[in-house]
TrEMBL record:
Alphabetical list of SMART domains matching this protein: DEXDc (SM00487), HELICc (SM00490)
Spans annotated as Disordered: 526-579
Motif (Q motif): 2-30
Ranges of Basic residues composition bias in the record: 538-550
Comp. bias (Low complexity): 553-566
Domain Helicase C-terminal: 228-378
Residues in DEAD-box RNA helicase Q domain copies: 2-30
Highest taxon, organism lineage: Bacteria
Protein name, per record: RNA helicase
Keywords (A to Z) from UniProt: ATP-binding, Helicase, Hydrolase, Nucleotide-binding
Organism: Flavobacterium suaedae
EC number: 3.6.4.13
Family per similarity comment: Belongs to the DEAD box helicase family.
PANTHER family in alphabetical order: ATP-DEPENDENT RNA HELICASE DEAD, DEAD-BOX ATP-DEPENDENT RNA HELICASE 47, MITOCHONDRIAL
Length: 579
């Protein structure tokens, strides 16, 4: 039985849910839908971005609408044009088997008279941005004085964007006896003021902890000098070949400048900010959703309408002016049950903000070091090897093979492989061997560093293609090796391989246990990576929140050391990111 059937939804909605392929309701849907169906009540629902809030209010709203009454019965306010259109499309999909329900989107950048005309034809549900709704009310083009329901979606984002006065004015135009449903990721003072002034004894639903971050997102910070911020960004991108990310900057000027630098350096990047026309914004978002763009550089306001489930990383190139905004940024990844990583690039003067954010999101950051050129070369080389191994051969090439064999007839198999991967590798090594270490000696954030006996960086030949992400691989290693919760760390999962660290004392346990195992018929291979993933200055947080300095483990004579490790720094200059 589809679990949505147990929530009290009618047959028409269940048919639409079946068409959409929904099987199990999310936590916020499971809590909100039965409550909103059973009671005429005001409600405050706190849940992170990407947890299914639209369906949580959309399904009960549609079921309560009188389809035979053409008057406007519900108003949904959302912060941006993109989110307004997205909600409108979803409401239409949910209600497609209910004859007579019409939903109209009201937003800036389109004809206001055309939108008013659509509403006059009969629209039971209006989805609107606050600015355009207020404009229509001022012109007396719309009547919301008799609505039964008002939904404030992403309430904290609307208020962060400066819509407080518009929202107060709009709500003052609606009837007191309506039901108000407020959905928000966080509960800042302004949202609490709205709830107190315009809601009647609202019931509260909280998914996770109030104002906390998502459990599917890991949080990392990298400490650099301010002048090295952009170079650090490039290294982080190079260390994650399959990156699909949003890079946040504070200002429109910085957003455009960083995007232009990335494009000039050969990355598939684009800017998204308020100075772009709507046509330009739509073109950028279309390219991003189809992954033609791997790094979308955006301001907070412009990114409000981004709704993409597969974002691997959120990179805070600069921390936001309002620390609470960090939660919205990080919520762009780790969505729909998938894991994600939120990265912050900080200078020493900003370190105190990390502690403040930790208190807000109720999660700890892991301090990591900017990857060295050697580590990036290693990651990129194995990424290329796996890409070559998995490439689908187009047999149109067969007719060219005799000539190619003739060209390479004097080369051994090993020489062919070495030359083939060197085509990509040489670009990295030639770039990064000239470049400096970008890491800044770490401040202790209020506690003294505690020396350890050192830790080891391992390479393992399993990755995301084996259905691992950083969380599940960490759990697999910890359980397989019988280690404690914090004994496996710095887990970096790539497509066909991964890296992880553990204390030097676990070396024999790791090598003996994992190298004797098979995963779905394939032998697991674990080796020591000479790139320790952090160097002698790297630190990690122990479970008490203290900083530990991790020493660098040296083992040049080990028979298990990977052959062909790179002994020089390496890297990337101008190159394509189209892979």
């Amino acid at each position: 039985m589809n679990k949505f059937e147990q929530l009290g939804l009618n047959e028409s909605l269940l048919r639409a849910i079946n068409d959409l392929g929904f099987e199990n309701p999310s936590e916020v849907q499971e809590k909100a839908i039965p409550l909103l169906l059973e009671k005429d009540t005001d409600i405050v629902a706190l849940a992170q971005t990407g947890t299914g809030k639209t369906a949580a209010f959309g399904f009960p709203l549609i079921q309560k609408i009188d389809a035979d009454n053409r008057n406007t019965q519900a108003l949904i306010l959302s912060p941006t044009r993109e989110l307004c259109l997205q909600i409108t499309n979803e409401i239409k999909l949910y209600s497609k088997y209910i004859n007579g329900i019409r939903t109209v989107a009201v937003y800036g950048g389109a004809s206001i008279t055309e939108q008013a005309r659509e509403i006059k034809k009969g629209a039971q549900i209006i989805v609107a941005t606050p600015g355009r709704m207020q404009d229509m009310l001022n012109r007396k083009m719309i009547d919301i004085s008799k609505i039964n329901f008002c939904v404030l979606d992403e309430a904290d984002e609307m208020l962060n964007m400066g819509f407080y006065e518009d929202i107060v004015s709009i709500l003052s135009t609606t009837p007191d006896e309506k039901n108000t449903w407020l959905f928000s990721a966080t509960m800042p003072r302004e949202v609490a003021r709205i709830a107190k002034e315009f809601m009647r004894k609202p019931l509260e639903i909280t998914v996770g902890h109030k104002n906390s971050g998502s459990s599917t997102v890991s949080h990392e910070f990298y400490l650099v000098n301010g002048r090295n911020r952009y170079e650090a960004l490039k290294r982080l991108a190079d260390a994650n070949p399959d990156i699909f990310s949003v890079v946040f900057c504070r200002t429109k000027r910085d957003t455009q400048a960083v995007a232009e630098k990335l494009i000039g350096d050969g990355y598939n990047a684009a800017a998204l900010h308020g100075d772009l026309s709507q046509a330009q914004r739509d073109a950028v978002m279309k390219s991003f959703r189809t992954r033609q763009i791997q790094m979308l550089v955006a301001t907070d306001v412009a990114a409000r309408g981004i709704d993409v489930d597969d974002i691997t990383h959120v990179i805070n190139y600069q921390l936001p002016d309002e620390i609470e905004t960090y939660n919205h940024r990080s919520g762009r990844t780790g969505r729909a049950g998938k894991s994600g990583t939120s990265i912050v690039i900080v200078t020493k003067s900003e370190l105190r903000k990390i502690s403040t954010i930790e208190k807000i999101i109720k999660q700890k950051f892991e301090e990591k070091s900017i990857p060295s050129g050697m580590e990036i070369c290693e990651i990129q080389l194995f990424h290329l090897a796996n890409k070559i191994k998995d490439v689908e051969v187009d047999h149109e090439i067969d007719s060219y093979l005799p000539a190619i064999y003739e060209v390479m007839k004097d080369l051994t198999k090993e020489e062919v492989i070495k030359k083939m991967v060197s085509v990509e590798f040489n670009r990295f090594i030639n770039y990064y061997k000239k470049n400096q270490d970008l890491n800044t000696p770490s401040a202790d954030r209020g506690s003294h560093a505690i020396p350890t006996d050192g830790n080891v960086r391992f390479f393992i030949n399993i990755g995301s293609r084996d259905n691992f992400d950083w969380m599940s691989l960490k759990d697999f290693l910890r359980d397989t090796l019988g280690l404690g919760r914090d004994d496996v760390f710095k887990v970096d999962v790539k497509e066909g391989f991964s890296f992880f660290n553990t204390e030097a004392g676990n070396l024999s346990l790791v090598m003996d246990t994992l190298n004797s195992m098979h995963l779905e018929g394939r032998k697991i291979n674990v080796e020591i990576s000479k790139n320790d993933g952090g160097g002698s200055n790297s630190r990690r947080r122990d479970h008490n929140g203290r900083n530990k300095r991790s020493g660098k483990f040296e083992n040049s004579s080990s028979s298990n050391s990977r052959k062909g490790n790179f002994n020089k720094g390496g890297g990337s200059g101008r190159r394509s990111r189209r892979s």
